[in-house]
Amino acid sequence: MAKSTNVFMLILVLCLLQSALANMFSSLSLPDEYSLLFQFKENISINNSASFDSHAYPKVSSWNLNRSDGAGNCCLWDGVECKSGNVIGLDLSNSFLYGPISSNNSLFNLIHLRTLNLADNDFCSSQIPSKIGRVSLLANLNLSRSLFSREIPKQISQLRNLASLDLTGNGYHALKLQSSNFQNLVQNSSETLRELFLSEVNIDCQH
Ligand SMILES: *[C@@H]1O[C@H](CO)[C@@H](O)[C@H](O)[C@H]1NC(C)=O
Ligand SMILES: *[C@@H]1O[C@H](CO)[C@@H](O)[C@H](O)[C@H]1NC(C)=O
Ligand SMILES: *[C@@H]1O[C@H](CO)[C@@H](O)[C@H](O)[C@H]1NC(C)=O
Ligand SMILES: *[C@@H]1O[C@H](CO)[C@@H](O)[C@H](O)[C@H]1NC(C)=O
Ligand SMILES: *[C@@H]1O[C@H](CO)[C@@H](O)[C@H](O)[C@H]1NC(C)=O
Ligand SMILES: *[C@@H]1O[C@H](CO)[C@@H](O)[C@H](O)[C@H]1NC(C)=O
């Protein structure tokens, strides 16, 4: 009798401990991602004259912070894809996004993202933010025709799950990638990498 009570107590303690630990280490939940997405919207400019594509429209304009219909709302936002209660995809191609993305933009805290498409926007010849390396599950990154320029940050090689990378159409030699970083990128993602579109990118062999 006493023995089975002890076993019961032990199981109870283990259960409590497990849920406490789970809470402590629990990753980003949908309500967090909901506000991160909204902060992204607040921190990026829209410019309706900054596109050459007739299909373009500002997807984020319809994003609306509305707590009364719950955090799951953001999964219905234009361009947002969710799975198992997390934001896993963002397709904001052709969306009149304009100007540099600040390196502290909440976009880089969306750690469950697997797909990010920012193609066909105007990031005004800014550098690809180095924080992109933090989005470590990223498998598909599409920054084609988005007017990024300068050195591609070495942190891009931290994307170990990369399957597809498209950096085309940013202008002839506007984007530069040091060959050592190119090697790291290919090595670090060798298990997953399938497609690499780097035409016009200047891969610098001097280093
Ligand atoms: C980013 O968004 C947050 C939340 O909406 C806002 O408080 C902050 O001022 C914004 N920062 C910039 C640089 O726009
Ligand atoms: C919007 O984009 C156009 C074309 O790139 C540019 O000339 C204009 O200055 C931009 N407007 C603002 C407010 O930045
Ligand atoms: C917020 O969501 C509720 C419930 O879906 C809806 O009735 C209300 O119109 C929404 N408000 C805005 C500003 O979208
Ligand atoms: C985020 O970046 C903006 C613009 O670069 C800056 O004004 C702001 O102070 C930064 N916020 C933090 C917390 O670093
Ligand atoms: C990147 O996005 C553009 C615009 O949506 C699309 O045309 C292109 O095929 C995409 N690249 C890849 C590798 O999927
Ligand atoms: C990518 O590869 C380089 C060189 O092998 C290494 O220094 C770097 O730490 C790697 N990045 C990650 C996130 O593993």
Describe this structure in words.
Helices cover about 25% and strands about 15% of the residues. It has three helices and eleven strands; from the N terminus they run ααβββββββββαββ. It has a six-stranded mixed sheet with strand order 2-3-5-6-8-10, with no helix packed on it. Strands 7-9-11 form a three-stranded parallel sheet. Strands 1-4 form a two-stranded antiparallel ribbon. A hairpin with a 2-residue loop joins β2 and β3. The protein is flat, with a radius of gyration of 21 Å. About 30% of the residues are buried. About 5% of the residues have low confidence. One of its GO terms (cellular component) is membrane. InterPro entries: LRR_dom_sf, LRR_N_plant-typ, RLP23-like.
Low-confidence stretches: 19-26
> Which small-molecule ligands are present, each listed once?
2-acetamido-2-deoxy-beta-D-glucopyranose
Order of helices and strands: HHEEEEEEEEEHEE
Spatial strand order of the main sheet: 2-3-5-6-8-10
Which percent range fits the helix content? 10-25%
The count of helical stretches stands at 3
Q: What's the main sheet like?
A: 6 strands, mixed
CATH class descriptor: Alpha Beta
Q: What structural category characterises the helix and strand content?
A: alpha/beta
| Rough outline | flat
- How far apart are the first and last residues' alpha carbons, in Å? 74 Å
Strand content: 15-25%
